């Protein structure tokens, strides 16, 4: 593809993915579309079950929802042969460069949307432009549609330019939201000496770039299912065991956990459902929550205390409480020397008019959030490699995870030029150190 074709394809691809928003593990249309574009670029993408460890998937939706999402993808024109190869799993991995050469760098791009109702007000550009989500209650409100487009743009640029001496691995990961997907693709970073993930926005305006985010927070996502006993609310409340009140007490107790100590930490309950009628003692309630902390020790302690609160509240109300961990990621830091190398490459880049491509390039910033790219980062670092998490400045119409979230598509082209420059530097440099000898991937800190 010519440069101008790729430049115009970036927002077009992003809008396609935006319209076909699919929640974690249901990205069947997105997977097929990504793989189809990669095939058209003369690459050989591996999809779904071909690349992913089924048993390591966390927070998987019910089988009926997975089946319904596959049927929907088929209705919306997803390639049948690719759907067959996926075997019910999503995600794509493709290598660019000579098949027998070592991998110089793996990059992670996330595919999934959020369970959120997108705004349809006329000031919201996707609604006004006719590319708002076609799927009720699912919305690309974090920018992963832009990440996926960037990954494809990178494949197109690398395939269009001079041949590479080493391979670049592009990992299109499902289910980043809820930190559920990376662990299932861990094998894809085995033997990889460099790893890079990126996110748009996160408070950084268009024209700026941070190459090495620090303090990605460890996080555990959990569902607590409270079971009690139903009874008549007036005639025999004493015979009931009220799951709703127990879950409500747990919610308040969780938010009363002191959030202080040796670093940033967070506790949040985002959903509480229970009961079914005003005059019945509720026999069931489900609470969905998360803990986060800037280091592993604090994260473990906070999650242990959250469990105590859940089990304590259940005991107070005579309930049974089952806690399921549905997502987990360790804390992580970018490697400062790799981030400095990435920043130096960004600072060298110029626009056609000869101006700096980025107004400001920083080598580090505190992340203040979680991303399961940390699973890959820790694995690569544990085997002697270097990893970084970059933030591509992108002015937003509303914050991440908000119904009117929208992003400045003009940030994509400079971001792509930088990613391409990084890949070319790492994959063509003569005399580059051989990839570090991998050590086993066990021993990676995991909260689950
Ligand atoms: Zn998000
Ligand atoms: Zn995100």
TrEMBL record:
Mn(2+) binds at residues 142, 144, 177, 199, 401. Residues 222-313 form the Peptidase M20 dimerisation domain. The Mn(2+) ion enhances activity. Transmembrane segments: none annotated. GO terms for cellular component: cytoplasm. Its cofactor is Mn(2+). One of its GO terms (biological process) is folic acid catabolic process. Pfam families: M20_dimer (PF07687), Peptidase_M20 (PF01546). The keyword Hydrolase applies. One of its GO terms (molecular function) is para-aminobenzoyl-glutamate hydrolase activity. InterPro entries: Amidohydrolase (IPR017439), Bact_exopeptidase_dim_dom (IPR036264), Peptidase_M20 (IPR002933), Peptidase_M20/M20A_hydrolases (IPR052030), Peptidase_M20_dimer (IPR011650). Keywords: Hydrolase, Manganese, Metal-binding. This is Amidohydrolase.
């Amino acid at each position: 593809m010519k440069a101008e074709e790729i430049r115009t394809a970036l927002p077009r691809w992003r809008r396609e993915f935006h319209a076909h928003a699919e929640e974690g593990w249901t990205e069947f249309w997105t997977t097929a579309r990504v793989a189809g574009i990669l095939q058209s670029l003369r690459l050989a993408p591996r999809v779904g079950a071909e690349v992913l460890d089924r048993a390591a998937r966390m927070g998987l939706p019910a089988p009926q929802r997975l089946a319904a999402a596959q049927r929907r993808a088929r209705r919306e024109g997803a390639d049948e042969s690719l759907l067959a190869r996926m075997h019910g799993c999503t995600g794509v991995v493709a290598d660019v460069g000579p098949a027998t050469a070592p991998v110089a760098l793996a990059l992670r791009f996330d595919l999934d949307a959020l369970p959120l109702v997108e705004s349809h007000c006329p000031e919201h550009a996707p609604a006004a432009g006719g590319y708002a989500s076609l799927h009720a209650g699912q919305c690309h409100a974090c920018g992963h549609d832009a990440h996926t487009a960037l990954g494809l743009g990178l494949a197109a640029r690398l395939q269009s330019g001079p041949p590479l001496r080493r391979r670049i691995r592009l990992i299109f990961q499902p289910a980043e939201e809820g930190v559920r997907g990376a662990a299932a693709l861990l094998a894809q970073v085995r033997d990889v000496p460099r790893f890079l993930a990126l996110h748009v926005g996160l408070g950084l305006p268009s024209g700026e770039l941070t190459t090495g985010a620090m303090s990605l927070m460890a996080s555990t996502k959990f569902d607590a299912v409270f079971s009690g006993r139903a009874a008549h609310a007036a005639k025999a409340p004493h015979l009931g065991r009220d799951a709703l009140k127990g879950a409500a007490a747990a919610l308040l107790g969780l938010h009363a956990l002191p959030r202080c100590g040796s670093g940033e930490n967070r506790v949040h309950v985002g959903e509480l459902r229970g009961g079914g009628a005003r005059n019945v003692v509720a026999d069931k309630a489900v609470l969905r929550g998360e803990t986060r902390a800037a280091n592993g020790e604090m994260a473990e302690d906070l999650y242990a205390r959250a469990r105590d609160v859940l089990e304590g509240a259940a005991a107070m109300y005579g309930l049974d409480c089952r806690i399921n961990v549905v997502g987990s990621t360790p804390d992580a830091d970018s490697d400062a020397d790799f981030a400095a190398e990435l920043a130096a490459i960004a600072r060298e880049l110029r626009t056609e008019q000869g101006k700096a491509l980025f107004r400001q390039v920083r080598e580090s910033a505190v992340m203040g959030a979680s991303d399961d790219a940390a699973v890959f980062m820790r694995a690569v670092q544990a085997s002697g490699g270097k990893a970084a998490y970059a933030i591509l400045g992108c002015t937003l119409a509303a914050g991440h995870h908000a119904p009117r979230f929208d992003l400045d598509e003009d940030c994509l082209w400079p971001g792509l030029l930088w990613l391409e420059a990084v890949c070319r530097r790492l994959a063509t440099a003569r005399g580059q150190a051989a990839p570090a000898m991998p050590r086993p991937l066990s021993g990676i800190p995991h909260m689950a």
